[in-house]
Amino acid sequence: MITDVDIAKVEPEVFSSVVFGAQLRCGGTNGIVSGTQFTASGVDFDVSQVTAGNMIWLESVDGSIKGTFEVVSVTDSTHLSVSQIRADASDAAIPIGSGSGLTWRIKTLEPQIAQTEIQLSGRLGLKPGVANAAYGIDEVEPVDVLKQIATALLLIGVYTVLYTTSTDETVRDGYEQKRNWYNQQAERLLAGISVQLPAAS
Fold first, then answer.
1. Could you tell me where the DSSP H helices lie in 95-201?
2. Beta partners for 31?
3. Cβ neighbours of 127 (radius 10 Å)
């Protein structure tokens, strides 16, 4: 339903090099980017289970490249197609720049995304959250609203973890505010959603 890219459009910081909030698939300090192509010696992206939709953090020594970008596709085991975060997945990849010796990390929230799908589908009385339901969440419309709800639910979980693991009171307060805000957004959207199933079309 949602991907890491959907989350990064809202909260790119959860994939940054300084904020814990995602699983690290692989990384290093030997990244090479040229436009929309990325490679790094000594890594096998297939073995690391890197997939399209994951996020890659890149930072050059001079700071000309620094930020969270998306993995558009896995070209082969040693090369990726990457892009600045696009408005739509069907858009052409947007060049990042050129550089070598980049610090890089590929992160994902795929395990949390899977749990969020179960949580949301259960709230709506659908599979996989309700095993014996007649319909699955992937059969529901409108998809855009479901994505907004799923993203908010996931970020509630992320900021709950960050809140409970931080020892800095100021930082904790910021995480708590974000957690509460996304909870309000999720509940507001859930209260107003009208689910359309195939049988009603």
1. 110-123, 143-165, 169-192
2. 102
3. 19
List the Cα angle 184/88/178 in 5-degree steps. 20
Token output for 167: 């020892």
pTM of structure: 0.88
Using only the alpha carbons of the chain, give its radius of gyration.
18
- Residue with the two structure tokens 């992937």: 138
Torsion angles phi and psi, residue 104, rounded to 5: -145, 150
Going from the N-terminus, what domains does the chain have, and what CATH number goes with each?
4-108 (2.40.30), 111-193 (no CATH)
pLDDT in tens, the chain (201 residues): 899 999 999 998 889 866 666 789 999 999 999 999 999 999 999 999 999 999 999 999 999 999 999 999 999 999 999 999 999 999 999 999 999 999 999 999 999 999 999 999 999 999 999 999 989 998 887 789 999 999 999 999 999 998 998 899 999 999 999 999 999 999 999 998 887 776 444
CA separation for the pair 140, 154 (Å, rounded): 19
Pick from 67, 71, 7: which is nearest to 40 by CA?
71
User: What contacts 88, CB < 8 A, 6 or more positions away?
Assistant: none
Phi then psi for residue 121, to 5 deg, are: -65, -35
